[in-house]
Amino acid sequence: MTFIDVAGTARTVDSPAGMSVADAALNHRIPGIEADCGGFCACATCHVYLDEEWFARLPAADELEAAMLDTETLDRRPGSRLACQLKLSDALDGLVVHTPERQYL
Ligand code: FES
User: Fold this and answer.
1) What is the domain extent for residue 61?
2) pLDDT tens digits, residue range 57-84?
3) 25 lines ligand 1 (CB under 6 A)
4) pTM for the complete prediction?
5) How many Å lie between the centroid of ligand 1 and the Cα of residue 47?
6) Tell me, what CATH number does 90's domain have?
7) How many domains, in total, are found in the chain?
């Protein structure tokens, strides 16, 4: 999968199926993903943006993730998701996510 930052720098990493996108980012020291709560959907510091194509291929955010995405500290956009709630799979091979300029507004 690939992380693209606001400057357009792409970082492609190889991570196993079943791992969350947040853990893939932390394991590869991807800038812009903090994941302060350790993946428990409680901090919203793993916010990422998906392109329309990838967003449509993923299951919708559950109630808890949707509530966290509504927090006022996020610059929420149509492709917003929390990386800790996105699990890598063979179906998501080649996933591209964009990291925000910062996790807090
Ligand atoms: Fe805290 Fe995702 S790591 S909400």
Assistant:
1) 2-98
2) 999 999 999 999 998 888 999 999 999 9
3) no
4) 0.95
5) 8
6) 3.10.20.30
7) 1
